[in-house]
């Protein structure tokens, strides 16, 4: 789960920003039910789908819903 630590601080200010490995974040969120199982072909783009699922994840864990991968969010993602 340490693989998500590298994303701490990644922001959605540039919605089309490409960051290597973001597809893994999307797959993680799909594995835990934040993205529909029917979704496939995840990209490394910080897109609207990722922002929306990050906000949903943050809401569930009572983290401020900013839609970015801050330290609290990535820290929670690394908890087994």
UniProtKB/TrEMBL annotation:
InterPro entries: Peptidoglycan-bd-like (IPR002477), PGBD-like_sf (IPR036365), PGBDSf (IPR036366). It comes from the Eukaryota. One of its GO terms (molecular function) is catalytic activity, acting on a protein. Residues 24-77 form the Peptidoglycan binding-like domain. This is Peptidoglycan binding-like domain-containing protein. The lineage of its organism: Eukaryota, Viridiplantae, Streptophyta, Embryophyta, Tracheophyta.
């Amino acid at each position: 789960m340490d693989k998500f630590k590298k994303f701490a601080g990644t922001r959605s200010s540039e919605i089309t920003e490409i960051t290597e490995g973001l597809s893994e974040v999307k797959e993680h969120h799909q594995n835990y039910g934040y993205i529909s199982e029917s979704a496939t072909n995840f990209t490394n783009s910080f897109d609207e789908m990722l922002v929306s699922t990050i906000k949903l994840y943050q809401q569930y864990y009572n983290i401020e819903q900013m839609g970015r991968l801050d330290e609290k969010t990535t820290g929670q993602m690394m908890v087994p």
